[in-house]
Amino acid sequence: MGNMVASSREALREFFSLYPTFSYNPGAPSTDEFYRMCKTFGWKRDNPARESAYQSFQDALVSAFNYIYGSDANDLASWRGLCAALEISPVPTNVQDAKIAFESVHVNLVDLVDTGRTGIKVRKFASVNDLRVYTRNSGKIFPREHAYAGGMLKHLLREISGTYEGQNQASRRGSGYSRRRRSRGF
């Protein structure tokens, strides 16, 4: 399946339309629909078709995020949109204050992408560890290192394993970071 690189409100619908025999429910959480599609097609984890579909699904998640929330971490309107989606008040009045405020905001980014379609309120977690547990249990894993991830997305990503806590943190390479330990973000 081809990569979806353009930011699009309909990126997830476009992804699922690549599988016309699957009956996509746009009102359901996207990850639930992906796993349901895998079950429908009988794809196990090591199936090349599933792996290809998963990569395209992750492209669609990033595309949808960039469309909904923006990709420029220096755009105050993007930060205000996130504040509205997460019911954060008071809304920061400048980009620097917004970045600082969001350093302590821990949300599942798949849920953040889905909230406008599903109507399900995005849960805010008290810690990265609480978010990590939820993400692992739900399977709602957002691609950590993605070619099309914009600055907004990179600022909000947290690490499932290891110590990565967003782009403003200290260098990972100097603190025991290794290629073998990299994992997906959320």
TrEMBL record:
Region (Disordered): 165-186
Highest taxon of source: Eukaryota
Official protein name in the record: Uncharacterized protein
Organism of origin: Carpinus fangiana
